[in-house]
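Consider the following assembly input.
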Amino acid sequence: MSQTLSPHKVQAGTTEARWIRRSLIGLALTFMFLFLVLPLAAVFTEALRKGLDAYLEALKEPDAWSAIRLTLLTAAVAVPLNLVFGVAAAWAIAKYEFKGKSLLTTLVDLPFSVSPVVAGLIYVLMFGAQGWFGPWLQAHDIKIVFAVPGIILATVFVTFPFIARELIPLMQAQGNDEEQAAIVLGASGWQTFWRVTLPNIKWGLLYGVILCNARAMGEFGAVSVVSGHIRGQTNTMPLHVEILYNEYQSVGAFAVASLLALLALVTLAIKSFIEWRHEQELQASANTPPERPTA
Amino acid sequence: MTALSLAASAPKRTPAKVLPGFNLTLGFTLLYLSLIVLIPLSALVFKTFTLTWDQFWVAVTSPRVLASYRLTFGASLIAALVNVFFGMLVAWVLVRYDFFGKKIVDALVDLPFALPTAVAGISLTALLAGNGWIGQYLEPLGIQLAFNPNGVVIALIFIGLPFVVRTVQPVLEDAEKELEEAATCLGATRWQTFSKVIFPTIAPALLTGFAMAFARAIGEYGSVIFIAGNMPMVSEITPLIIIGKLEQYDYAGATAVALVMLVVSFILLLIINGLQTWQRRRSGATS
C-alpha cells in the first residue's frame, strides 16, 4: 500500500512523514501510559483513598514496621554478598582466559531464568523438615526454612547475577592494559584493584547494586515459598502487601505497596543519573573538557 | 581452604599471568556458585529421583497440571508477541524521534524491572477489576480483563515490556543511517527501506528480546496470582501448581512439576545465549 506512494512524497531519506511520526509517538505513549503510568498512579491513589491520616496510620502498624525492618535486613545481607561475588566473578571471567569460561558465564546467569517459585522450593528441599539437612537442623534446633535465614538465602539466589552481569561486559571492554601497567610499576594486586580497576568500574558497580537492591527488597515468589508467612516475624514488605490485600485491607496493602513503588522510582532516578554521568564522562574523555556545560 | 582446593581443580594455563588473583577469584566464584545455585538445584533433581517414572509422569501430566502448562505457555507466548510489537515501536520512537518528556519515558521503560511484582499485581488488579479505573468502562461492554486468563496475559505484558525495548534500542542506535540513505537513493520507499534494510538489522535483537520476555513470563508468579483469579483448570499458572502442592505437603509432586519448569527454563537460557552470540556475530560482520 505504501508502495503506491511516489518516492518524492517521502520527506527525507531517513525519516518518515510527519503524520506517521506523530501517530507512532502517540501509539507508543498511549501504550506506555496504559501499562506503566496508570498502574503506578493507581498505587498512590488507592493508598491515599481514605486520606492522608489513614495512610500514615496504616504505615505505623507494628506488623508493617516489622515487615519494613525484615526487608531492609534482607537487602543489607543479600546485596553485599552478591557484590563481593559479582566483583570476584567479573575479575576471574573478564581478566583471564580459561577452559569452561562460557559455561561458567551461563551458570552465573542461571538464577535469572529459574522461576522464583522453583528458587524457593530448592531451599525447602535442602533445609526443610523433609529436606537433606532437615533432620540435622532439627536436632540442633536451627531454623532456616520458614525463618529469616531462608528468606535471605532465597533473596541471594534471585539477585545472584545482577552485579556480575553488569561488571563482566564492562571489565571485558576495558581490557587488562591499565592493570598490567600498575602491576609492572610495582603495585600489589589489592592496590591495583582499589586504585585502577575500581575507579573504572564504579558506575557499572553502582548500577548493578541499585538493581540488585530493588529486586532484593521487592522479591515475592521465592520469599513466599520459604517464609511461612508468620506475621511480624517472617513477613517481608511484599508478603505483607499480599496478606493485607487478601484480608481486603486495601488502604493498608497499597500504603505498604506505595513505599515499594517509591523505592522503584528512586531506583529509576539513580539509574538515569548514573547513565547521564557515564555519558558525560564519555564525552569529556572524547572531546576537550567543556568549560561550562550548556544547560 | 575450600576455595583453594576448588581453585586447584580448575584448569591451569601455562602462559604467564601478569595479573594476580585468578585462583582466589575463580575459587570464590565456584564455591559461591556451588553453594547458592548448583547444590540447591541438584537437590531438586535428586528429590525427583525418589519418584518412580510412573509417579513422575502422573504428577506432571495430570489434567490440572496440563491445563496450567497450556495457560502458562499460551499466555507467555501472547504476551511476548505483544511485547515484540510494542517494544519495537517504543524503541523506535525513543531512538529516532524527539518529543517532550522523552528522557522520562526512557527511564520509565525500566519500571517493570524495578517495581516489585506483588505491587504490579495488586495495582493492575485494582485498575482492571469491575470497579477499577479501566474496568468500570469495560464491564458494561462485557469485557472482563481481571480474574481470568486475560488478566494473566496483561500482567505478563507488563513484566516483559522492558526486555524487547532494551535489546532493540542499542541496535537501532548503532544502525548505520548511510544504508537507509543508500536505499532511498536507489528508489526504495520508506516502507521498503524499513522492511528490507532496518528490520533485518534489528531482527536478531527482536528475537532475543522475545525469548527473554517469554522466559521471564513462564516463571512469573507475583504479578500474576493477584489478577488471575486462580481457578483450577482455567486460570491457574504452573508456578501456582507448585505452591499448591507444597501447601498440601506433596513435596514429590511439587518437585516433579518444578523439574519440568527448570528444564524448560534451562533450554530457554541456552537458546537466548545462542541468539546473543548470533546477534554479536552479525553486528560484528556488518561493522
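The first helix of chain A runs from residue 18 to 47. Ask yourself how this observation constrains the way the partners meet.
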